[in-house]
């Protein structure tokens, strides 16, 4: 007993030294005890996930990952104690394929949004594959392109509203942030598809209910804190937080729109087969799975993910077309030629857009060179571990590929992979096209690929040619401003110009341009 008392006294007198010893022992174990020390990477990254937390917090993760793979000349880079970034695109089917044994990591738990004080995994956040399959099956057909095409009139009505707002800007010369309006357009389209009503963004020209800011905050939180997932249990997953914020604002916004739609249906108004209607139909077939709570989650995911990703994609497409005038001229000529031949409807349809090969090449190239996702798409190594690329990876090691890295693979896209060159998609052989499509992880890959991809592509493929068909967009090289992100809107009647933001958000905060936005000769009256 005396010995135990002496040990207790010793520990109490030296508790700080003991804690420091345990702390540094843990760091050393992280670095050298995971069986991953042979994989190259930043020295400090092996000790703690705090290294990648800093990379993500300062919005440079995608650039750092590209540089690391090139600097180490390795397809495997260690970016955390148990986290490996992989660039070998031939392994994409192994890690993300339909029959892959790899599962989503704890990172995805951070994207769950509370409803009435409880968290429920959704299609995006579900980690358990059986659960994901069970909640996806009842609603999968609602996301098929065959179904999505039925929503074209809803997209067209929103495009008409966007063009009416752009007509006003072009006529008055008032400055505006084009990127923000593209994102507001994406929000209103989602509203039409989900609830048969625009959400009011284009009409008001404002961030309705602050939902855009809420989504941006949610994404930033998940991206940063997701690098050290256990922090989320302390921050938003603790009981105190759930008492303060029992329901996330994005879920509240979605629920309000659903109630408005339900009211209109109850009074016999607007009986369109929108996404909500299809959810209700699925509930009748699968009442035990498609509960009221699950319907809210289905729609909440669409509101949160569908608008922001599409908005970024639209910004990217216009940015790179403006950066490469030859590409802009060629795609406009292709659209104008098809228009003169009577091959385009008053609002360009999905099928008409797919028959414009250079436009499709520009869209693919923009999504390739500036993917929406700038972090590795995390997966956990299955039980028993696995050998990949000559490296043994223990079970539960987090591996993943960053779309920014895979989309710049020179072995797949050529020595000019860092250059925006749509022609590569037209010049490639069938074998090269397969490899290029596989390496482009903008919408993920395999069984957990973005389920809303078809919605996003429908919007993009319709609105981009529609705007380029009716408006002239070009650089305003002579414009002088102290800001690097100024744009000009030129009034076609008087030529007066005013400065304004182009909308660098979603373009890494570094990409901006000086342009004019004029109503063309073929513009709507």
UniProtKB/TrEMBL annotation:
Cofactor entry: heme
Q: Could you tell me which CDD domains the record lists for this protein?
A: CYP57A1-like (cd11060)
The UniProt keyword set, sorted, is: Heme, Iron, Membrane, Metal-binding, Monooxygenase, Oxidoreductase, Transmembrane, Transmembrane helix
- Membrane-spanning ranges: 12-29
Keyword Cell inner membrane carried by entry: no
State one Pfam family annotation.
Answer: p450
The cross-references to InterPro entries, in alphabetical order and at most eight, read:
Cyt_P450, Cyt_P450_CS, Cyt_P450_E_grp-I, Cyt_P450_sf, Cytochrome_P450_monoxygenase
> Sorted alphabetically, which SUPFAM superfamilies does this protein's record hold?
Cytochrome P450
Residues binding heme, per UniProt = 450
PROSITE patterns recorded for this chain?
A: CYTOCHROME_P450 (PS00086)
On the tree of life, the source organism's domain of life is Eukaryota
Q: Which GO terms describe its molecular function?
A: heme binding; iron ion binding; monooxygenase activity; oxidoreductase activity, acting on paired donors, with incorporation or reduction of molecular oxygen
UniProt similarity note: Belongs to the cytochrome P450 family.
Q: What is this protein called?
A: Cytochrome P450
Q: Which organism is it from?
A: Knufia peltigerae
At the highest ranks, the source species' classification is: Eukaryota, Fungi, Dikarya, Ascomycota, Pezizomycotina
């Amino acid at each position: 007993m005396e010995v135990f008392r002496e040990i207790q006294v010793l520990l109490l007198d030296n508790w700080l030294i003991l804690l420091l010893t345990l702390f540094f022992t843990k760091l050393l174990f992280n670095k050298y005890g995971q069986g991953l020390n042979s994989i190259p990477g930043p020295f400090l990254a092996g000790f703690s996930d705090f290294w990648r937390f800093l990379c993500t917090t300062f919005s440079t993760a995608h650039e750092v990952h590209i540089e690391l793979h090139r600097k180490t000349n390795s397809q495997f880079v260690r970016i955390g104690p148990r986290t490996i970034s992989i660039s070998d695109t031939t392994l994409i089917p192994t890690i993300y394929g339909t029959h892959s044994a790899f599962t989503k990591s704890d990172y995805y738990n951070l994207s769950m949004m509370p409803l009435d004080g409880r968290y429920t995994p959704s299609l995006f956040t579900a980690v358990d594959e059986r659960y994901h399959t069970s909640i996806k099956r009842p609603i999968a057909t609602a996301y098929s392109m065959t179904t999505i095409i039925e929503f074209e009139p809803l997209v067209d009505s929103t495009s008409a509203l966007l063009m009416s707002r752009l007509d006003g800007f072009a006529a008055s010369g008032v400055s505006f942030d084009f990127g923000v309006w593209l994102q507001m357009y994406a929000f209103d389209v989602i509203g039409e598809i989900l609830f048969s009503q625009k959400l009011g963004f284009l009409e008001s020209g404002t961030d309705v209910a602050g939902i855009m800011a809420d989504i941006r905050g949610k994404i930033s939180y998940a991206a940063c804190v997701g690098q050290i997932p256990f922090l989320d249990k302390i921050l938003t997953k603790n009981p105190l937080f759930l008492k303060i914020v029992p329901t996330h604002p994005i879920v509240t916004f979605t629920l309000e729109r659903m109630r408005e739609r339900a009211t209109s249906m109850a009074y016999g108004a607007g009986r369109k087969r929108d996404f909500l209607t299809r959810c209700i139909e699925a509930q009748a077939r699968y009442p035990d799975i498609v509960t009221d709570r699950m319907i809210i989650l289905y729609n909440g995911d669409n509101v949160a993910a569908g608008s922001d990703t599409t908005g970024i994609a639209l910004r990217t497409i216009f940015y790179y077309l403006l950066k490469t005038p030859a590409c802009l001229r060629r795609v406009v000529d292709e659209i104008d030629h098809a228009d003169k031949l009577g091959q385009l409807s008053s609002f360009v349809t999905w099928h008409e857009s797919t028959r414009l090969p250079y436009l499709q090449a520009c869209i693919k190239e923009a999504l390739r060179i500036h993917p929406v996702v700038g972090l590795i798409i995390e997966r956990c190594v299955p039980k028993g571990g696995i050998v990949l690329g000559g490296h043994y990876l223990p079970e539960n090691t987090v591996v993943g590929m960053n779309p920014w890295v895979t989309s710049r693979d020179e072995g797949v896209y050529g020595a000019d992979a860092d250059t925006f060159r749509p022609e590569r998609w037209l010049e490639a052989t069938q074998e090269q096209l397969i490899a290029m499509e596989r390496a482009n992880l903008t919408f993920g890959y395999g069984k957990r690929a973005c389920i809303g991809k078809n919605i996003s592509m429908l919007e993009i493929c319709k609105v981009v040619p529609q705007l380029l068909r009716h408006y002239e967009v070009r650089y305003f090289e002579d414009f002088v401003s102290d800001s690097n992100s100024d744009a000009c809107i030129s009034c076609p009647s008087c030529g007066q110009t005013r400065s304004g933001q182009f909308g660098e958000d979603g373009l890494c905060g570094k990409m901006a341009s000086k342009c004019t936005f004029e109503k063309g000769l073929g513009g709507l009256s």
